[in-house]
Amino acid sequence: MPTLRSSIVPSLLLTVCAVARAATAGEPLAGTQPLTVEGDLASAMVEGIDRFLLRQIEQAPEHRAAFWDRDTSSPEKYNASVQPNRERLAKIIGAVDRRLPCDELEIIATTSQPALVGGSLKFEALAVRWPVLPGVYGEGLLLHPTRETPIADVIAIPDADQTPEMIAGLVTGDKALPAEQQFARRLAESGCRVVVPVLIDRDNKYSVGAAGTRPTNQPHREFIYRQAYELGRHIIGYEVQKMLALVDFFAADAKRNEQKRPIGIMGYAEGGLIAFNTAALDTRVDVACVSGYFGPRDRVWEEPIYRNVFSLLREFGDAEIASLIAPRALVIEASRVPEIAGPPKPAQGVGGGAAPGKLTQIDPLASTREALRVAKLPAAMHGPLTFMGGPGADNVLPAGSESTLEAFLHYLNKDAEVAELGPAPVVRRQPDPQRLKRQFDELVDFTQDLLAQSEETRRQFWSKASRRSIEEWQESTAWYRKYFYDQVIGRFVVPKEPANPRTRKIFDQPEFTGYEVMLDVFPDVFAYGILLVPKDLKPGERRPVVVCQHGLEGRPQAVADPSVNDHHYNQYAIQLVKRGYVTYAPQNPYIFQDRFRVLQRMANPLGRTLFSIIVPQHEQTVDWLASLDFVDPKRIAFYGLSYGGKTAMRVPSIVEKYCLSICSADFNEWIWKNTSARSPYSYLHTGEYEMFEFDLGNTFNYSDMAGLIAPRPFMVERGHRDGVAPDDTVAYEYAKVRLLYADLKIPERTTIEFFDGPHTIHGVGTFEFLDEQLGWTPTSK
Length: 781
Hints:
By secondary structure, this protein is an alpha/beta fold. It has 24 helices and 23 strands.
C-alpha cells in the first residue's frame, strides 16, 4: 500500500480514549496547568489552524508593498522597476524554461485533412501549430482576415472546455456558441489576424498513470499540475509559454515584413487567466482583455487545484498583476463563467483522488472593487483601464460582448470598429480528434523529461555544500537549511505564543504514567500529544526522549494508548517507554481527509505548506520537553512511520534540537514518487498524498533532507513487503546518504534496516540504533 491510513475507526478510537480518560483522569504533570479542554482535540487543532490561515490570507495584502519598488517617473523606468516582480510571477507560475525560436506558424495538413478548416467572406481559418519548448507545440487555428493588411495581431483564448472552433464560429449544432460570444470570429471579421490556441481541458479521459494502468478522475489540468508543481512548473506556466511563443512569432513576423502591428490578447474564463498572466509578463502585448476571471483571489484555495500558485498572495492579487500590465491598456469584462462543482466523479474502473475545488460565478461587485484597487496601489503608473459590466446580476455580460470588443479594438487601433455579424462561417473540416491528446501528451512527456533531469539539477543546486569536514558541512549547509524552510516548506514570521503547558493524567500503568499535553503555538494554533513517563526515574535523573509520530489519519492514541494496538505501530511508544525512554506522541494535522487537504491549499498561496504549521508545533514541543527536569535536552530523538516518516525527513532537517531521526516506511526517491507518470508506486494518480512542495524536485530529495540532518544520526526502517516503493528505489536514494556520512567520516551514525515485513514499525534495528546513539541501556526488552 502506498501510504498509511489508520486501521482504527476514528469514532471507536475516540470512544476508547474517552472511557480511559474518564477512568484515570487525575492531576496534571508537575509544573503544568490542568488541561480541562474536552472533545476531539485533533478536530479542534484543525479548526484552529483553519482560523489562523484565514486570518493570514486576510492580512496578506497589508504586506505586499515590501515586494514592490515602483518608479513612476517614466513608462520606461516603471517597466524596469517592476521587472523583478514579473520575474517572480514567471517563477511561481512555472514559466521559466527557455522557449524555442518561433518565427513561423506551421500549417497542419494531411492527405485526408486539409489545412483549411473553414471561414467566411471576411476570414479563412487554418489549422496551425508552433514550437514552444523541446517536444512541446502550441496548436490551434489561424484566422486570417481577407483584407490585405490586418489592423492588429490578436491571441484569442477560449475557456478550457471550449475548442478554438467554438469561439471562431466553426461549430454547428448543440455545441455552437451564440454568434455574439464567438469573439475570435468577430475580431477576425473586424480585420485582426487572430490565433486561437487549444487549452488543456477539464475532462479526465487521458489522466492515466503507471503506463496506462491507473486511470484517475483527475481533470487533465490537474494531472499535469500535480507532476509539474513538484518540478517548479505549472499548467498555467506551460500555457502562458505557448502564448508568449505566439508573441515571439508576431514580433518576428513584423520585423521580417517591416510591418509593426499592435499585439492584443483576449481570453475568457481559464483563457482569461492565461491571457492576464501573459500580458503581465510580456510588455510586447499592447492591449489585454480579461473576461470571466478578474477578481479577488483570497478564496483561490476553494478553486480547482490547477489554479493553486505557491506564494501568489504574498506579492500578488489581481490588482497587482494588473499593475504589471500598466501603463498598457487593460479591459476587464465581468462575464458569466462556467460553473464547475468539482472534478469528474470516479466511474467504474477509474480511481478517485482528484482534489476538491469548484468554480462559481464571480461577484461583479467584488470584481469591481478589485479593479478599483488598481488605482489605489501606491504610486502606480496607471494605463487605460476599462471595466465592462458592474455590480448586480443584470450587469454581467456574455463573454466577448459588443461593448467589450469595441473597447478592446479601440485600444488596439483607434480607427477600428466592430464589424457587423454576417452570415455564419462555413465549416470545411472537423477538428482533429487527436489534437487535445497530442497537447496533453507533449506536456506530460516534457515534465517527465524534467523529472529525469532533476537529479543533475539538484546536484548543481547543492554544489556549494562542502564535505571536507563535519564543520565545513555544517557551515556550508546552513544556507540550504534556511532555503528549505523559507522557500520550500515556508516559514510563518509570526512570534510564537508562550507554551502555557496544560496536562492531565490519562494512564496509570505499572511501568509508566501517561499525560495528555496541550501547548500554545500561534494564535488559534496549538500542539497536542501524549507523554509517557517511566515510573523508575531516579531523583535528578535525566532520560532521553523519543518522539513517536503517527501516520496519515492517525492519532497519538494509536501509538501511545495501552488499550489500542494498531498493527502498523505495534505500540512502539509503549515499547520504548518500557525500555526506559520518555516518549511523546504528537498529533499532527494531516487528518480528516479533505479538511487537511484544504489547509494545505489555504497555506500554499501564502508561500506556506502544512509543514509550516507542523514545524513550529515541533519547535514548541521540543522546547517544552527540554524544560522538563527528568529529560536530557540533548537527547531528544524523532521516530516516525509513513506520514510520520515524511515528518522525520522534514522537521529534524529544520529543528536542530532533535538529536536523531528515524524514517520508517516512507524513505524513498521522493521526487520520482510524487511525479512519475509511469510507475505504479507513484502518488501522481492517487489522493493519498497532496502535500506537494513547489519546486522541490530541483532542490531537495530525501537524501538531501538527510543531508540537513547530518551529522546527527539518521536511520531508515524498511519492510521488504512495504508497497510504498520497491527495495531498490529506497536503497538507491539511501546510498547517497551512506556516502555522505562516509565522506564526513561518521558512517556509524547512519544505517538502514531491511526486514521481511509490511508497512509497519519493526522495532528491532531501530531500537538498537536508539540505544547506541542515545547512549541508553534499556531497563527492559
